[in-house]
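Reposting from the mailing list since nobody answered there.

I have sequence plus structure tokens for a pair of proteins and want to know whether others read the tokens the same way I do. The first protein:
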Amino acid sequence: MPVEVCSYRLSLRGKPVGTHVLKTEGLGRHTQLEGRASFQGSLGAATITQRSRCHSQRHFSLRFREEIQERSEQRSFDVSFDAQRGLVTAAKGQRDVATAPYLRSYRDPLSLLFEIRSLGASESTHVPMLGKDVHVQLAGEVELETAMGLRRAWAYLLHPGQSVVYVDIEAPHLMLKLSQRLAEGQLEALLVKVGSEASLDAFEAEPVQPPERGAKAAKRRARRRRPRRGRRD
């Protein structure tokens, strides 16, 4: 199926501060998500790209990656969730790697939003995330003025953080607006355009390991070689 592309306008205290594009691609029992936020103005100049692979129905995360580009500095954070081995692995670069037990079906920031779109008129739910649980509570129905006209939406309040997610009551239940409290003020993302594209670049459940080089790779290859047997007369 084609990729759903939702474009949002970001504003802080009523002033534009950037854009956010959220892409969703169904891949059978898995869903791939990609979000790219570009900031400007009072929030500085930065680009944050998030990618997620999660279960389409149960919404638990298989892998999540975040990349931050700020001026000449680039940082990345990659998390894989391995339920079979019971392990969560988080990496900042190739050397800074940490692990933790996989205790519950964790969500990531993108799969959390994807799950909220499926809640319908559910009054509340608890969503397990690394480090904390998020309580999602239905606050009621509201009318929103959007680029697509006046829309009726469910408003979900998130604890902690007091963020509010507004989801279109009509299918496919697009996220129409997101309001998030920051130290600088209230950051709002308002849907301004919906489109589609053919496909996303593949984002697998496990990070692709770079090929080994140098002495370590040579030693590993040597250990894999089987010794030849001597010739018998």
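The second protein, same order (residues first, tokens after):
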Amino acid sequence: MTVSKTVMMPETEEVVCPFGRLLQVLGKPHTLQILYGLSVRSPLRFTEMQKELKIQPKTLTARLHELTRMGLLERKSYSEIPPRVEYELTEKGKDLRGIFSEANIWSKKYGYDPKNRKS
């Protein structure tokens, strides 16, 4: 005979997602692609990101500005001809790598592995 226990949550427990604001930012188009790309290979130039991630320049510019303002990316400009600008994750941005690691584990466990095209 199996006895199951019901775990009661305290009535004072918050049901509002404590990281909803973060999810709003990460949920914007291409934001996760940019952050993941820079977590894999950094620094990257604007044109490299545009070509590899297949993001329109206007959208990429907007996301890079937002992520830089949030302190997740650092923009480095070099006084060269032609001008060179590179982006890389800040320490704050690097701390998001754990999210990618956990998402990878979950997606492999439940069949959303990008290497498995049937997902």
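Reply #1 (J.P.):
I read it the same way you do. The longest helix spans residues 57-69.
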